[in-house]
Design goal:
This protein is about 40% helix and about 20% strand. It is an alpha/beta fold and about 350 residues long. Bound molecules: nicotinamide-adenine-dinucleotide, 3-isopropylmalic acid and manganese (II) ion.
Amino acid sequence: MKKRVAVLRGDGIGKEVTDAATAVLDSIGRRFHHEFEWVNGLLGGEAVDKAGQPLPEETIKICEESDAILLGAVGGPAWDNHPSHLRPERGLLQIRKHFELSVNLRPVQAFKSLLAVSPLKEEVAEGVDMMIVRELTGGLYFGEPSFHDNEKAVDTLVYAREEIERVVIHAFELAKQRRNKVTSVDKANVLESSKLWRKIVEEVAENYPEVEYEHMLVDAAAMKLITYPAAFDVVVTENMFGDILSDEASVITGSLGMLPSASLRADGFGMYEPIHGSAPDIAGQNIANPIGAILSAAMMLRSSFGMEQEASAVEKAVKSVLEDGYCTNEFKNIGRKVLSTREMTEKIINEIECELIAD
Ligand code: NAD
Ligand code: IPM
Ligand code: MN
């Protein structure tokens, strides 16, 4: 199969981890006889510097002409004091909105081989396997008015029925393929938008009698994620809560650098990116963990291209390298074998190509 992928490496470690993901997919191409055509586009801070805006028209065109989008991360101190419309993060929000990528899937799985390095006790982290379904194109991130001056600041949290319905339905559909449980997270004791959210969850749930569901307030959910994370199956929530809870949940796996994500449009078109940012503190040092980006590429194979076997091959290779005791720099001082970004990528590619010899 031939697939054309828009590659938006972005800023900081975004570039390093995206290079890792495309190298791994090239090895999948060799093993399974696919051809991936990578087309680079500018996004974020580099786009501001080179094209005067965080999401140039040219990048939109490249993405429109591609079968999927692979993204690194954007942002960094160089652009932190830019006006809102010239911030790298604005480009990310614009691309999500432009392509109507309203459902963001953030799977959180505890790798057995990393249980000992989770900040949680082994017995608490063991067996964690949840899917955070984050609404991605509404809520506080996009509501108008939104402004600040010296005396006043306004953000608007607005949700239309249709925006809530589509993400909640997606969550219930996913639960049917998993363990039949949905936890809907809101702040219905305070927020009007959460009251509508809760009502819609109850309506949707009527069509899924086999799926057990519960409502949970976001503050309690933040606590439960740490005390009893294995109890969660599918978690569905609005944009900002999903952003915060997914960073929190990522550390159950040992590192923010491990977590992949898929942002999907209703027709299945998708953008794939690790959940972490551009990590300016470690950028350019070849020490970033590329696994979140590599697992995002695996999600792309599965969701956008229907390549189940190929996606599993990537996931199996990652698992096997971790089981061999290898890790990246954030796990140093815990008796594991520390690899650079490129060495980790090579190890994963070797695993994939070993199987090629075995096939
Ligand atoms: P961050 O996710 O970039 O980093 C948080 C911490 O986690 C840092 O200590 C970093 O070194 C570490 N970390 C992150 N990814 C890692 C990896 N793959 N391997 C090893 N360690 C990793 O968050 P931040 O520092 O709050 O934000 C930095 C910039 O990134 C900001 O400009 C922010 O807006 C942006 N950001 C972008 C995205 C995105 O593009 N999707 C996501 C989050 C933050
Ligand atoms: C993420 C990031 C973004 C978000 C920022 C950079 C706009 O934190 O993808 O999780 O908040 O959605
Ligand atoms: Mn985030």
